[in-house]
């Protein structure tokens, strides 16, 4: 590392620090404050210690049960969409044209779903998957398969997963495409001279070059699916029953629906700690990759 | 970090070996895969679009792949009813405000991260990044209290500031990636030539990373435009975003599907426009300037 050490750089960071502290630290302090108190209305608060946390982390209570259910549901959802979107995104990236006007056209079409407001994503799929007026729902039912995402939990899950694949696979694909484009043509020529198979080219040239962007892709997709709220809320409202109630939906229900400030605040803190922990793991991996890469400049 | 990741349209000499190399980039059946994927992406949008051109009678009457008679009534309603079109104005107002604030604040910070080491820099960077990942649901209620307390509730500024929570860290992250691709010799030469830091930053450095700033603006625009939970929580009447206005289509007479679809189609347009402007940098931008 040859960056000069200079603490005056803090001056340049101060504005960002100020606004993020305003947007993040003050609200989190409010949350911490609520999480240790109970209220009987009238803005009168009583010290409740770790009561909410103990209730929250005990699956046998009503609150704990709901939180853990939504946590497992959310983890399952994140795992499924990662398992679909990452391979599919890689495949799409490999299939993308590399030169000419087709590149711009493909990029623009692919990025479209990413720029749709999240509730409109919900609306699009709500309309598209309805059995009476939606093309998809209608077509599936005409095939003789009974499909109704409003009533059947499995259908609701499938709808939400397909929606998420529709919404976010392009992000993975665009990231991988950026990684692929950074591979010099000489690599492919060398592989051809060596008589490498298509699979070997993928395994030993393309995949290693995509490693870094894939980590970013997995990080972003995991985090965003872990905080998903608007899209499933519009499509299913968390139902049928509670079958698609993910963590954020549960939290908003507690905080803004029932105004259970203490419980919601305690859940927010636990939720945020999980996110921080996962984020830290990824950050460490990325930083280590950076260091490794600087040590091996020839590989670039 | 930069040399290989030039814009997609950078011309390359087409020698025979290279044309073969291009083949190696793709695989058998690539065209079919890509075609199917693009159809999968476009079908739901197509459905929304033709629905917006249908009357409600036709929508409820059954399946038609193309409207029997095309009507623009749904769009006319949106453009003439101020409670509808003001939603678009509100949304665009806070999105533009947020993009401007995010970039202005993030530029110096990204420079600091890319050019210097300082006390706690790694931890600070991680903390910023973690805010990009924090679930907005956590902040809904505290933001409601905070912005009510300081009298900004139901203004576009409140939403613009709230969205800084995830857009400022993102902007720092992307800009830092682009700035680190600029050789440090440029800075040193400028200082030797007697430029002061502000002068150098505005006159020389900013034009060099103009692409990066464009990409960053695109992402700030995007994430502020698509977010609804915070935007809806922080507004009631005066600054209501279009996405929240859309819930009005549920009435006693049932869903007004045509109007809902038309409003949805109109929310796609700003996104499509900004994609078009940054199409050559989009891939690198999604990699956050780090390929």
TrEMBL record, chain A:
Its main location: membrane. It is a multi-pass membrane protein. It is found in: Cell membrane. Keywords: Membrane, Transmembrane, Transmembrane helix, Transport. PROSITE patterns: ABC_TM1. It holds the Pfam family BPD_transp_1. One of its GO terms (biological process) is transmembrane transport. Residues 71-282 form the ABC transmembrane type-1 domain. One of its GO terms (cellular component) is plasma membrane. The chain crosses the membrane at residues 12-36, 75-95, 107-128, 156-180, 213-230, 264-285. Belongs to the binding-protein-dependent transport system permease family. PANTHER family: GLUCOSE IMPORT SYSTEM PERMEASE PROTEIN GLCT (PTHR43759:SF1), TREHALOSE TRANSPORT SYSTEM PERMEASE PROTEIN SUGA (PTHR43759). This is ABC transporter permease. It comes from Chelatococcus reniformis.
UniProtKB/TrEMBL annotation, chain B:
It is found in: Cell membrane. The chain crosses the membrane at residues 27-49, 92-113, 134-153, 159-179, 200-226, 257-278. InterPro entries: BP-dep_ABC_trans_perm, MetI-like, MetI-like_sf. It comes from the Bacteria. Keywords: Cell membrane, Membrane, Transmembrane, Transmembrane helix, Transport. The keyword Cell division does not apply. It is a multi-pass membrane protein. Pfam families: BPD_transp_1. One of its GO terms (biological process) is transmembrane transport. Residues 88-278 form the ABC transmembrane type-1 domain. One of its GO terms (cellular component) is plasma membrane. Its main location: membrane. Belongs to the binding-protein-dependent transport system permease family. This is Sugar ABC transporter permease. It comes from Chelatococcus reniformis.
């Amino acid at each position: 590392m040859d960056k000069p050490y200079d603490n005056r750089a803090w001056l340049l960071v101060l504005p960002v620090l100020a606004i993020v502290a305003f947007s993040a630290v003050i609200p989190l302090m409010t949350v911490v404050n609520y999480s240790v108190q109970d209220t009987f209305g009238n803005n009168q608060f009583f010290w409740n210690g770790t009561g909410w946390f103990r209730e929250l982390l005990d699956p046998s209570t009503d609150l704990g049960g709901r939180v853990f259910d939504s946590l497992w549901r959310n983890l399952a959802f994140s795992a499924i969409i990662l398992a679909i979107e990452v391979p599919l995104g890689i495949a799409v990236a490999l299939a993308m044209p590399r030169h000419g006007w087709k590149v711009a056209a493909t990029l623009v079409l692919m990025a479209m779903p990413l720029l749709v407001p999240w509730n409109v994503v919900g609306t699009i799929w709500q309309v598209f998957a309805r059995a009476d007026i939606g093309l998809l729902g209608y077509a599936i039912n005409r095939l003789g398969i009974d499909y109704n995402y409003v009533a059947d939990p499995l259908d609701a899950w499938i709808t939400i997963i397909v929606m998420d694949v529709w919404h976010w696979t392009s992000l993975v694909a665009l990231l991988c495409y950026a990684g692929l484009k950074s591979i010099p043509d000489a690599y492919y020529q060398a592989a051809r001279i060596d008589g490498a198979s298509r699979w070997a080219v993928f395994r030993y040239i393309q995949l290693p070059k995509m490693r870094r962007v894939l980590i970013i892709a997995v990080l972003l997709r995991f985090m965003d699916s872990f905080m998903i709220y608007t899209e499933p809320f519009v499509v299913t409202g968390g139902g049928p029953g509670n079958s698609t109630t993910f963590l954020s939906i549960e939290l908003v229900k507690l905080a803004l629906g029932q105004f259970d400030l203490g419980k919601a605040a305690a859940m927010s803190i636990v939720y945020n700690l999980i996110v921080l922990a996962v984020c830290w793991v990824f950050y460490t991996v990325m930083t280590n990759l950076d260091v490794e890469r600087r040590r091996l400049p020839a590989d670039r | 970090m930069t040399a290989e990741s030039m814009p997609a349209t950078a011309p390359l000499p087409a020698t025979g070996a290279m044309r073969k190399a291009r083949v190696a980039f793709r695989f058998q059946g690539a065209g079919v895969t890509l075609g199917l994927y693009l159809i999968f992406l476009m079908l739901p949008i197509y459905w929304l679009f033709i629905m917006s051109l249908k009357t409600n009678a036709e929508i409820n009457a059954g399946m038609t792949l193309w409207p029997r008679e095309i009507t623009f009534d749904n769009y006319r309603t949106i453009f003439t009813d101020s409670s509808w079109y003001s939603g678009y104005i509100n949304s665009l107002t806070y999105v533009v405000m947020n993009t401007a604030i995010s970039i202005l604040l993030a530029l110096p910070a990204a420079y600091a991260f890319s050019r210097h080491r300082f006390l706690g820099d790694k931890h600070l960077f991680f903390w910023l990044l973690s805010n990009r990942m924090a679930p907005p649901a956590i902040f809904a209620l505290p933001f409601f209290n905070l912005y009510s307390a300081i009298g900004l509730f139901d203004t576009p500024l409140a939403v613009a500031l709230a969205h800084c929570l995830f857009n400022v860290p993102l902007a720092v992250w992307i800009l830092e990636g682009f700035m680190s691709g600029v050789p440090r010799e440029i800075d040193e030469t400028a200082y030797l030539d007697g430029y002061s830091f502000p002068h150098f930053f505005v006159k020389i450095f900013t034009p060099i990373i103009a692409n990066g700033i464009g990409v960053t603006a695109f992402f700030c625009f995007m994430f502020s435009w698509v977010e609804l939970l915070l935007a809806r929580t922080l507004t009631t009447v005066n600054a209501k975003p279009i996405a929240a206005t859309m819930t009005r289509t549920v009435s006693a007479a049932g869903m007004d599907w045509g109007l809902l679809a038309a409003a949805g189609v109109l929310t796609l347009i700003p996104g499509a426009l900004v994609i078009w402007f940054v199409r050559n940098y989009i891939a690198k931008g999604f990699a956050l300037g780090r390929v």
